[in-house]
Protein: Catechol 1,2-dioxygenase
Amino acid sequence: MTTTDKVSPTAAGSGASATETFRANQQHGAPEGVSAERVGTVVRAVLDSVHEAIRAHRVTYPEFQAAKKWLIEVGEGGEWPLFLDVFVEHVVEQVAAETQQGSKGSILGPYYLPGQQRLPSVAALPARPDEKGAPLVFAGQVRDIDGRPIAGAELDIWHADAQGYYSGFAPGIPEGNLRGVVVADDQGRFEISTVQPAPYQIPTDGPTGRLIETAGWHPWRPAHLHLIVRAPGYRPVTTQLYFEGGEWLDSDVANATKPELVLSPKAQPDGRLRSEYDFVLDRT
Ligand code: DHB
Ligand code: FE
Structure:
């Protein structure tokens, strides 16, 4: 961290850390599951689409050079994970989901950090003593597609704080804050206490933010919880859960909402919000 510790989701902070995290989580050597033949086929198709857009819109030399300059800046600013996860990942997820029957998935996004603290089935996510945000209880059960509970399923959960910032990426938030791996009980049940996150804004001061502003789009994602639900012998589900009535739910910049993924939290007698959600995993 630098001495200019301003608490904002700066591109230099969140975007670039997302690149470092992505790199750290990739295996070394040739990427697995990517054949030379597919590279030829898919890259050809992408280039054909680019050429078609240039023809259709009579793209000029100044526009072509501006595009090159912007692409260089996205790389230099470390914003490729951020940009690709916002504008491309949802379609990769849709294609992957075509062969899956269980709970609906959504994009992983750039802010997942593996190896978080393991927590019992009834647990509170690590939070600051003065963590802001409405207290939220998120509970449910993990089952297989025949309705049988999956004992010991893991719920790897992470979310933004009440200002929309993620620990490990925005400055000034303790490591592991609002992140954890909750282990369900022998009935696949879990009950997670946390706070309600705020909507997330794409950092506005980097090349992705500038593109969004120049294009006249908005940089917001609705408030969401991220989860990867997994158990040995089952296909993991990477998903996100949103909140009924939440701002930006109908215009997510990342196009990653689905009607099945919207929670309807209810106020409990103790004042906390509570939401139930069950997960269904496919067998591998
Ligand atoms: C991005 C951020 C998120 O929190 C998310 O869930 C998906 C994408 C992004 O900035 O790319
Ligand atoms: Fe997110």
User: Anything to note?
Assistant: The pocket of fe (iii) ion (ligand 2) is lined by residues 109, 111, 200, 224, 226 (CB under 6 Å). DSSP finds six helices and 14 strands in the chain.
